Amino acid sequence: MFERVLIANRGEIACRVIRTCRRLGIRTIAVYSDADADAQHVRLADEAFPIGGPRPADSYLRGDAILAVAKKAGAQAIHPGYGFLSENTDFARACAEAGIAFIGPRPESIEAMGSKAAAKALMETHGVPLVPGYHGDNQEPAYLAEQAGKTGFPLMIKAAAGGGGKGMRIVRKEAEFADALASAQREAQSSFGDARVILERYVEHPRHIEFQVFGDSQGHVIHLNERECSAQRRYQKVLEETPSPFLDEVRRAAMGEAAVAAAKAVNYVGAGTVEFIVSPNGEFFFMEMNTRLQVEHPVTELTLGLDLVEWQLRVAAGEPLPLAQEQIRAHGHAIEVRLYAEDPEQNFLPGSGKLLRLRLPAPSAHVRLDGGVVEGDTVTIFYDPMIAKLIVFDADRPRALLRLREALAECEIAGPKSNIAFLERLARHPAVVEGRIDTGYLDRHLDEFLVGDVAPPDYVLFAAATAALLHDECAAMAGMRGSSDPHSPWAQADAWRIGHEGRRLVALQRHEHRYEVEAYGHAGNYRMRHGDDTCDVRGARHDGEILSARFDGDALRLAVRADATRELLHDADGQRHHLGRAAAYAWESSDAAGGNQLVAPMPGRIVLVKAAAGDEVAEGQELIVMEAMKMELALKAPRAGTIESISAAQGDFVEADAVLVRFATE
């Protein structure tokens, strides 16, 4: 076994690899960009070395710099994680030439499977079912348009290199093809340094089911069962699980055999994933092979009781696979979701900033957390905004879903916005609960998974106001104990007055809406009013996490977290409500930004300007395309009108809230 391993990655996966190495007694070496000098993977590793600027091209994609560190630190092997250089043939070959083990497949296997086009050509010769389409070398737009016509619509444009949903577009009409092709090629070039694409007939309502495969240098190849990843948004996986609720034993066996055959076709060594598109009738087609560890590998680990990173290390050190195919025994059900710094209500706009609060459930036999940040860390604009992976396990799927809902209810993120509320709705949606979701369902029915700007019900406002009052009273009592007159009635936060019952106003805010609750009483017993609705609250108790009280005689137990500035409340149906504390008697309305300018929603690089000063544009017309956090964002006109000026050019890097377009005043 290796004694010193360098991890050529960052964030969650680097921390994940470090944990296994430490358990095995292997010394770890990290590398970091300027943006990651204080990152958790740097703090967890035994040694860490800088390799360049914050942009991936200046650091984590610099194979020469990483190899230089490996030689300097005496690393015997390099674990590439996923993303960055994990599927880079040249880097794998350079490691071999330097006498350093690459913890992954042989360069030839990466080369064969790293390109979707090459992989499909190879699978075709081995009889693996393929979706009709084009995966040739001619990349001229006119020729691709011709091949698109032959393939037929709807079709899928895919980046030939890379993965992760980048460089993918669905095209339903011939007239949409040219723009979709140009956009996919730009994203592919930016993400993978390779603008080549392939075309595939788009299978309507498909499921995405992948098989984990593993090979060793002795020629053994096995599969470790499937993972279903059909819950996707814009080709990005949102929820992954094993076993698939769709497969029966016959289909599972057939797909497993095909996955092993695909791996054997390239003499595969190490961890890999063979991905299939599965039609509603069960027919399956090879989609691609990822020659690396997958983000969702923990669900496989939990159901098999294995450590796949340990397997990677052992196989790379020349050891045979620890188990044979007939020894693989699965039990239980595991589900994974990814907690992201993003705003689902704003088209999942990636977020950045300091994590002011990060509360996650405690790890247990049923809950696993793989993260790369802690409270106080910063989510930067330069990399994927994932905060942590939440993985749950139980004896069967219904109980695993229940574990997921309970674990999500314990999550709280403050600072950048997060997708927690979106995931909570996902975990309760009938399409997920019934196991019938397909890869396009989320995009077709996204409004079913978004909270929207819906007013909270009155009982939620009364519960939030109760928690706020109890918090304020507790804080006041704590302050009294340290005062010169701890028994003064004037120091208590109960609105006590001589001759009449004191009135208190609790002001709550959600988005631009303000809610005022009048309260009379103290110490957990209150009469409340909101508008025309009243409520009698009795016996309220709050331990910081759970509020219990009788509301008009009906006892409720609600999850509520409160402090002086905000409330986070889960109502009886599991709906998450974020309510900010507002000043009781000082309110200034917030006027939404006018439609006379278009601003950058976050820091990023301008990749395309599609208008000019003097142009007459329609509301919703695409004006600028910018790239941020490895995503292309289309910025559209807030209203119809004449453009007065444009303050951005292709290639410019702009800060958040920078004014990019000004409209002439009507």
From TrEMBL:
Residues 586-664 form the Lipoyl-binding domain. Residues 1-447 form the Biotin carboxylation domain. SMART domains: Biotin_carb_C (SM00878), GARS_A (SM01209). SUPFAM superfamilies: Glutathione synthetase ATP-binding domain-like, PreATP-grasp domain, Rudiment single hybrid motif, Single hybrid motif. InterPro entries: ATP-grasp, BC-like_N, Biotin_BS, Biotin_carboxylase_complex, Biotin_carboxylation_dom, Biotin_COase_C, Biotin_lipoyl, CPAse_ATP-bd. The keyword Ligase applies. Keywords: ATP-binding, Biotin, Ligase, Nucleotide-binding. This is ATP-grasp domain-containing protein. Residues 120-317 form the ATP-grasp domain. Its cofactor is biotin.
